[in-house]
C-alpha cells in the first residue's frame, strides 16, 4: 500500500525517553520535517494505521515490546514507510535483527546528530543539492567544517590567490576544486599539479612549457600547465616541495602575468587564478632558507586551514555512511551498514591519513564484507594494517631487517657462516647486524626455540 504524506515530509518518532524524543524532534524540525511522536508500540501502530508517514524512527526497547513489532506491522500492512531503528550502543545483534526484519538502517545510542541527519536524507531521498553538507562537495556538519564551507563560499567569489594548509589526505585538492567551481571561472579549466610528484628537471617544462629543441627529446613545442589553465585556475599542490630555483621563476609569473617556456625568448601572457597548498610547515622552511618569503606572501593572500579528521570526529559517521553508499554503487553491490561497535572503532581511530584513509578503509571493508553489515573485526583488521603502513621508513626498515635475519637463522639452524653467505655479507658485518637486533645464533640451533 503506497501512502505518503502531502506537503512537508512527516516522520513518526517512537521512543519512551522524553529527552531523546525532544532531541530527535528538534533536529528533524530544523531539517524542515513534520514529526509525530509515539511512546509505545501500540500507540505507534494506531498512528500508522490512521495517517500516512514518510519515515519511521523507532527505539528497539519500548514499554510494551520490541521496536521490531513496528517493523513487522509495516511489512504486514504493505505500508511504504522506511523504518530505522535506534539501538543501544554496541548491540550489534539488535541491529542485525532489525535489518533482517526489513529496517533500512539503524542508529546507535547515544545518537550522533550528523549520522541521524545523513540517515534521514538518504531514507527520504533528499536531493544532494539540498544537503548543506554536500553543497560544496565537502561533507561534514561539525563546526570546523561549517566554518570551512562558509570561508570557501566567500573565497569562491573573489579572485585572490588562496593558500590551503592541511595534513595529507584532508581534502586540499577537493577544497581547491570547490573554490574554482563556484567562482566566476567555474566553467573554465581547473588544472591540478602535484609539485612533489614531478621530477625536478621536468617541473619547469611541465609548468611553463618548452620550445622545440629546448633540450634533448623536445622534438616539438609544448604548452605548459599554466597555459592549459589560461582563464581558469591552477592548483599547485605540495608547493613546499618546489625547488628554490623554480620558486624564483614562479614568483616572476605571478608578478608579471606571463610565462616564458623553456628555451624560448618570448613570454606568453596568462590569466590564471592560483590556489596553492602544502602539508609542510612553510614558516620553518622559510627560516631555513628553503622557501622564499616573497613567494609565500604572493601565494598566501588568503589562507584556508583544513582540519584533520581527528579534529572533527563527529563527522566520521556521516563520511563513513556516504563512502559506503558510493563504494557500493561502484562495486554494484547492496549498500552495507556498519555494526555499532565497528562505527565506534572508526570514531576513536587516530586517522593519520585523514579522509583519504577513511575512504580506503571503507572500500576495503565493502570489498571483503560477506554480509549486509560490516563487523568490527573487519574494521579492526583494516585499522591494524593501516597502522603498520603508516610507520616511519626507518622503523619499517628495521622491522624488515630483523625479520630477514630471523628467517636466515631459522633456515641455517643458527649457522652464522651459512647465513652470512646467503645474505652476501661477511661474517664480521653479519655479526654486527645480529648484535644490533639482539639476536643470538644459539637461539636457532637445532633443539632450541626460535
Quick rundown:
The chain has 19 helices and 16 strands. The protein has 450 residues and is an alpha/beta fold.
Question: Which properties best describe this structure?
Answer:
single chain, 450 residues, alpha/beta, Rossmann fold, Helicase, Ruva Protein, domain 3, 4 domains, 5-stranded parallel sheet, 19 helices, 16 strands, 46% helix, flat
Going by helix content, strand content and strand pairing, the class is alpha/beta
The CATH class of the largest domain is identified as: Alpha Beta
What is the CATH homologous superfamily assignment of the largest domain? P-loop containing nucleotide triphosphate hydrolases
Q: Any idea what the radius of gyration is?
A: 29 Å
**Order of adjacent strands in the largest pleated sheet:** 2-1-3-6-7
- Mean pLDDT comes to 84
Description:
By secondary structure, this protein is of the alpha/beta class. It has 4 domains: 10-126, Rossmann fold (3-Layer(aba) Sandwich); 143-305, P-loop containing nucleotide triphosphate hydrolases (Rossmann fold); 312-389, Orthogonal Bundle (Helicase, Ruva Protein, domain 3), CATH 1.10.8; 393-444. The chain contains 19 helices and 16 strands. It has helices at 18-30, 41-50, 68-77, 92-101, 113-123, 143-156, 172-181, 200-208, 225-228, 244-256, 282-287, 293-299, 316-331, 340-348, 354-368, 376-389, 393-412, 416-422, 427-436, and strands spanning 10-14, 34-38, 55-59, 61-62, 65-66, 83-87, 105-108, 162-165, 190-194, 233-237, 258-259, 268-269, 273-278, 302-305, 337-338, 373-374. The longest helix is centred in the last third of the chain and has 20 residues, at 393-412. The protein is flat.
Amino acid at each position: 500500500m503506497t501512502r505518503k504524506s502531502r506537503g512537508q515530509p512527516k516522520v513518526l518518532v517512537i521512543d519512551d525517553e522524553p529527552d531523546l524524543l525532544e532531541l530527535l524532534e528538534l533536529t528533524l524540525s530544523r531539517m524542515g520535517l513534520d514529526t509525530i511522536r509515539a511512546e509505545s508500540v501500540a500507540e505507534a501502530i494506531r498512528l500508522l494505521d490512521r495517517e500516512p508517514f514518510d519515515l519511521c524512527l523507532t527505539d528497539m526497547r519500548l514499554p510494551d515490546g520490541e521496536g521490531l513489532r513496528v517493523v513487522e506491522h509495516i511489512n504486514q500492512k504493505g505500508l511504504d514507510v522506511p523504518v530505522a531503528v535506534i539501538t543501544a550502543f554496541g548491540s550489534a545483534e539488535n541491529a542485525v535483527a532489525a535489518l533482517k526484519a526489513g529496517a533500512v538502517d539503524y542508529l546507535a545510542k547515544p545518537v550522533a546528530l550528523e549520522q541521524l541527519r545523513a540517515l534521514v536524507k538518504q531514507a527520504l531521498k533528499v536531493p544532494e543539492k539540498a544537503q548543506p553538507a554536500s553543497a560544496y562537495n565537502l561533507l561534514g556538519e561539525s563546526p570546523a567544517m561549517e566554518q570551512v564551507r562558509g570561508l570557501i563560499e566567500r573565497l569562491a567569489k573573489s579572485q585572490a590567490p588562496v593558500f590551503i594548509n592541511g595534513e595529507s589526505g584532508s581534502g586540499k585538492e577537493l577544497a581547491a576544486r570547490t573554490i574554482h567551481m563556484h567562482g566566476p571561472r567555474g566553467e573554465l579549466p581547473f588544472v591540478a599539479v602535484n609539485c612533489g610528484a614531478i621530477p625536478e628537471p621536468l617541473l619547469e617544462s611541465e609548468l611553463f612549457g618548452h620550445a622545440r629543441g629546448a633540450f634533448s627529446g623536445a622534438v616539438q613545442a609544448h604548452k605548459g600547465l599554466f597555459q592549459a589553465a589560461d582563464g581558469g585556475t591552477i592548483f599547485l599542490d605540495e608547493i613546499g616541495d618546489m625547488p628554490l630555483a623554480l620558486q624564483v621563476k614562479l614568483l616572476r609569473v605571478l608578478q608579471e602575468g606571463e610565462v616564458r617556456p623553456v628555451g624560448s625568448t618570448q613570454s606568453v601572457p596568462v590569466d590564471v587564478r592560483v590556489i596553492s597548498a602544502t602539508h609542510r610547515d612553510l614558516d620553518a622552511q622559510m627560516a631555513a632558507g628553503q622557501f622564499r618569503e616573497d613567494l609565500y606572501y604572493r601565494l598566501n593572500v588568503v589562507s584556508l586551514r583544513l582540519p584533520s579528521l581527528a579534529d572533527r570526529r563527529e563527522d566520521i559517521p556521516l563520511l563513513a555512511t556516504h563512502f559506503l553508499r558510493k563504494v557500493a554503487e561502484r562495486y554494484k553491490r547492496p549498500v552495507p551498514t556498519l555494526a555499532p561497535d565497528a562505527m565506534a572503532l572508526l570514531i576513536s581511530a587516530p586517522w593519520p591519513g585523514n579522509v583519504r584513509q577513511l575512504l580506503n578503509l571503507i572500500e576495503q571493508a565493502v570489498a571483503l564484507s560477506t554480509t549486509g553489515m560490516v563487523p568490527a573485526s573487519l574494521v579492526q583488521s583494516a585499522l591494524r594494517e593501516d597502522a603498520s603502513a603508516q610507520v616511519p621508513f626507518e622503523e619499517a626498515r628495521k622491522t624488515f631487517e630483523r625479520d630477514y635475519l630471523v628467517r636466515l637463522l631459522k633456515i641455517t639452524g643458527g649457522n652464522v657462516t651459512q647465513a652470512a653467505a646467503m645474505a652476501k655479507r661477511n661474517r664480521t658485518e653479519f655479526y654486527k647486524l645480529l648484535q644490533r637486533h639482539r639476536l643470538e645464533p644459539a637461539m636457532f640451533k637445532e633443539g632450541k626455540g626460535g
